[in-house]
Structure formats: structure tokens, C-alpha cells
Amino acid sequence: MLPETRRALLHRIAVAQSESRAPSLVAAVVRDGRTVWTGARSCVPGHEPDGDTQYRIGSITKTFAAVLVLRLRDEGLLDLTDPLGKHLDGTDVGEGTGVGELTVGQLLSHTAGLASESPGPWWERTPGELRPALADVLGEKPRLHPAGRRYHYSNPGFTLLGALVERLRGEPWGDVLWREVLEPLGMTRTTLLPQAPHAGGWAVHPWADLMLPEAVQDTGLMAPAGQLWSTTDDLARWAAFLAGGDDAVLSAGSVAEMREPAAPAEGGERAALDAPYGLGLQLLRTGGRTLAGHTGSMPGFVGALWVSVADGVGAVALANSTSGTGPVAADLLKLVAEREPRIPEPWRPLSDPDPALLALTGPWYWGPTALALRLREGRALELGPIAGSGRASRFRPEPDGTWTGLDGYYAGETLRAVRGPDGAVSHLDLGSFVLTRAPYDPAAPVPGGTDPGGWRAS
């Protein structure tokens, strides 16, 4: 990394620690899967934290809980459309909680309509023993909005997901997390409770430069919503994972699914402040780029982790202060992405082009609209407008000779090349749209037919 970039990163965290009056702040930047910069500031000279110092990471914990649920889905043990009650006893209406019909996907995306918090006393500052059962976490009125209708952030929703993991794995959530995620990724300093060396949590007086220690609580059933402690070294590994996946834990395709918007931002006067949400991941659109990750806070601690897949950059920032430090992690990512933009891979020709697929490429028409079909590596196809804006999608080849849309309007739709009696391709069928080699080709089965008079001046 360039010296000028390193100084800019150090300047950003120094300003954040000073202006927010954080007792300490530690940060790291990841590029193309490896840590390329770390930095720290402290109010105690000579005692800056390092990459092995634990901080409480708050709701960044939710990203770990979501990965455990996606692992269950990929193993075929559940589907995101499954109602919770199918897998978790005691959640049906009439048994005290009334959340059994909420789907797993709705819980992951905060669209289940659940309350933001558990009933008092405030769960973040009180021991989990006060909420020994799910009914204690959910309270008498757990649902505030119709399911699936709106985004409403819910900590109890992730308690339910943690209980779901425990039910299907038959062991405590933390044990599953260690065996299936943390240990395979080498994240040995991420734990449910603090292990030395760790930072102490502080509240900073709003009107004087004084500090008050914050107590540490084991939140019990609420742990999947915000219990974890971690380090910037470990979270740098986690950032790399959230950008590219790891087959030992979760495939790149499933991690990419987590990064796709699954819920809109909250409406109203905060619409400009709240980001949309994926499956256990917050999404932030800023400076022309989309970031995926999560912010987190618990009494005495704040933090954030963001990755930009397009830039190949991720950033982590953690502080031991109850009050916020601003968008430090996002700013660190932006500094690197803009000062040292990713260098594209060299263009290379296709390794083994199929002549039959090459013949499909070129212009196609949806009615009078001109589209271009392009062949990519691995028999993949791309379809998009020849000029201007319009619908565009990438397509994955399937064993039966069709293609499935990966993104855009045609995500999940089937593209097939339809052949006539002579074996030649007469048209493309894309989710019932007929694409022809000429605009409204009369020789192709255009829905509704074409005027026998053909094209004319008037």
C-alpha cells in the first residue's frame, strides 16, 4: 500500500478517536483477501490495542448467525420459505409466542414484523437469566407489523434463529459456531465471552472528559443478536469470507445470496439513513458503490465491518466506547478504493469456445428492441441492450442445455435456444419472451403474430 494511503488511513482513525473521545480504536483494511493495513489509537500513551485485542462486536454477531442458517439450508435441512414452527417447537400460535408461521427468510431479513427489542429490562445491560425461555424474549406481543410487509429491525428475531440452529444441530449455538465456522476459518480469538487480552467497555460523559466502566453481561438466549467478542485480525478473515466465501464453511454463491437485497430500507424520515438489508447482512450504498457487512454496538463498544466486492476491499473498525465513532470502517474502505483502485485482470480469450454457442451470439430482438448476446467463459451467456439502458442479465449454463438468469430482471428465468425442424435455431425463448434474429421476424413464432403487410413507411 502506498505511504500516502497509509497516512490517510491513520489520519482517519486518529480524527475518529479524538473527536468521538473513544478510549481506544483499532482498525484494519483487507484487500483481495489479505490484511494490508492495521492501525490503532488510545487515550493511554504506549498502550494502543493490536489486532489480537478483543472488543465486543454487537450486531456484527448476526452475520455469523446467518451463515449458520444458510449452512442448514444448503444441507437441505430447511428452506428459507419454511415457517419457523416446522422446525422449532413452542412457536405456534396458541402456545404463547405466535411466531410459528413466520418464515426463516423473513427472520433473516428483518421482515417478520417482530418488535425491535425484547420486553424490559433492557437485554443488553441485564443477565440472560432474566429471559430463560423464548416466551420471555418475545413477550406478550412479539409481532408489531404484518409479516413480509416491511423491514423492521429485530433483535429477538435472531434469538429465534439461534434457537433454530440449536434445535436442528442438537447442541448449543456457540458450540456449533465454533465447530462449523470459527475453527475452519482460523478465527480462534472470536468467543462468546471475553478472553484476555481484551478491551474494557466505557461510557464517556457527554459534557466532560470522564469515563464510566460498563458492565459485561452474558445475554443468554439473545447471544445470536449481539454477544460475540472478536479482534480485528479475526474480523479481517471474516471480511474476506463475506466477500468471497469459503467452501469449508459456505460457498461463494450462498455468500453472494446473503449480499443481495432481501428487504428495503425503513421508510419515513429515516429513509435516507437506513440501509437495505440482505440475509443477515446490512447493505450500504455510498459513493457509487455497494457495501455489505454490519454495524454493531453493545454497552461500552461500537464497531463496523464492510466489504466492497467490486473493489476487492474490506475494512473493520472497533472502539470501546458506548457512543459512536462515525462511519470509520466505511471511510477506510473508500480511502483505499479511491486512492488505489483495483487493477483489472488482463483480458484473455475464451479457452475452448463451442462453435454452436458462438453461433448464438450477436444481435437479437425483442420486438423492435435490439439486444446483444455475448459468450463468456464456462459456456455462460450475457444479454443486454446494444445501446442505451434496458434489461440485462447474466446466465448460468444448465446440464439440460438451457441457461438460468443470475441477476437483473431475468434472475431465475430460463433462457433456451429453440430449434426448428431443420435443426437451426429459430428463436430464443426467455421466460416466454421470444427473441428473434430480425425485428418481429415473421418466420419466428412471435406471440400474437405479425402484420402480413410487414414493415412500412406509413
Automatic annotation (TrEMBL):
Pfam families: Beta-lactamase (PF00144), DUF7586 (PF24491). InterPro entries: AmpC-like (IPR050491), Beta-lactam-related (IPR001466), Beta-lactam/transpept-like (IPR012338), DUF7586 (IPR056008). Residues 19-332 form the Beta-lactamase-related domain. Residues 354-437 form the DUF7586 domain. This is Beta-lactamase family protein. It comes from Actinacidiphila oryziradicis.
